[in-house]
Amino acid sequence: MSIIAAFRLSGNPLVLMPSVRAAPGMTVRREWSIPDPDSDPVMFVWALGGDFDAFEAALPDDPTIREHERIDDEGAQRLYRVVINRDASTNPAYIDRETGASRLSIETTAAGAVLEVRLPNRDALQEYVRLLRSEGFTVELLRAHPASQPANRLGLSEKQATALQMAHDNGYFEVPRETDLGTLADELAVSEQALSERIRRGLSAVLDETVSGISPGENAPTGED
Q: Angle at CA 140, nearest 5°, toward 15 and 27?
């Protein structure tokens, strides 16, 4: 079953990041991109929520792009066509090809880029993260869930749902355990304490939505602990 996953990327040159950081509050969202194996790709992006004057003043000196053109202005947001400079930014397209990933959305702010992708399975998800890190990106997995299921269910936050799903899939709840908290924390790029808190709060949310109010023995299968 395919997986929908979202990551926050930082720590490596990201397209338009210098211009975004020059414009307080700015967010850039990709509308469409045109890859070209023989030259720099073209990308169409919407900019919104920040200082447009500062953003446009920074574009000519932004090393991650070669050309830019404003092609639409809707007041609250503006559409730009940019030619990406691959000499100054990392091209993750080969990662998409090797893992069978389909990019669903990319949104960049001063904190980094949030990338949402569809992947064939959890093995592809793990390989996707590994390859991103091998390219120098700092990767935080924000959420991952089967494409047929919503990301937020049973009162869980996205991070709690991701932590519980990964813990379950890797045998953390098995007896004996098949993985440990440190291994899972490394995979999610968080501290063991942060992951432990997510798991505890996630379990609490699940219990509140499932067994809260059930009397002891009610609906319990016989012969099971």
A: 40
